[in-house]
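Give me structure tokens for this 231-residue protein.
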Amino acid sequence: MELDDRSAEAHNSMAMIQLFYRWNWSVAERESARAVELNPNLAESHFVRSYVLRPMNRMDEALQEEKKAMELDPLSEPDGSTFVLIRMRNFDAALNEARIRSEAQPNNGGLHEVLSEAYFFKRMDKESEAESERALQLAGEKTQLAEQVEVYRRGGFRAVLAWRVDWLKRKAAKQYVSPMVFAERTRNSVTEKRQSATWNKVIRNANLTWCICKAIQTMTFCMPTHATARS
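Here you go.
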């Protein structure tokens, strides 16, 4: 930036550093705004600004930035709007968005996983399971897929949610597993439990881990909102 203060890419990089490593959201917001100002036709600038706005809970603005980025580059981050809509608890719109993106890229396993997540929040468990299985199939995860199908056959969707956490524990004993993935699977599993005092505490702890991990990776969920999302 000292060499070229008018580089949108440089301001994007600075915004990401401030957001991910220093957690200085005000500086990140300023840098992302400057990047958009310098090059409003650069999709990356709008993606970055959306990321910055999410943990600040400026979700309407974050969604607009995602939409603008998608207009400029439809294939760069096709799942971004869905995650923002879920965070806003606009589950109908999130599901519609996820369906559109998945249909446009039917061989993108990540989009089927996102669609599974959208179905989860709509309590459409059968559909959520089907999309999860499709994502595993596209990823070539034959062993995991076969085990998940059998767990679902025997115990249903809630059994699968618990099994996913156990699967990750077994996997982590052999190789690295991201804490973000653990937080996501634990969150989904405990959210299915009824609202006893004990489970309320578990849910808060799971969502706290989720918030920390997602803040680092740009998708922060609000604990009180998310804990009751499927209640």
